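Task card 7
Instruction: Convert sequence to structure tokens.
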Amino acid sequence: MLTKNQSSPLQTILLVDDDSADNIMHRRLLERMNVAENIQDFLYAEDALTYLGTPEGKNTSLIFLDIKMPRMNGFEFLDELIKMEDNPDDLPIIVMLSTSHPNWDDNASRKYPLIKHFFTKPLTEEFVTDILQNIE
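Output:
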């Protein structure tokens, strides 16, 4: 389901979350809503970074990023993502996800202006619609 502000699906959405059940649930929601031509999910942030470095990965419009993950957390992922891109305007939109109410502080928002939203999992149709309306 596309919003009135969005005429066509996004190119690619990434789900980066170490919980495979969350990835499956979020993928099904996004597919049902028909919001992207391609949805990729990754259990490890490093694998998502590798994908983003490929030609296919350059088509990523939006990333749903878990905060707490093993090996590399969401903020460490963002640090590496920023290093990969010469032009910050070419970075995908980031939506941070958490299982608990996230503590968003002004320092984090200044350091990572590409983060557009924080949501408590799971994603809902209402959350996704809100995000898409604010992209355009």
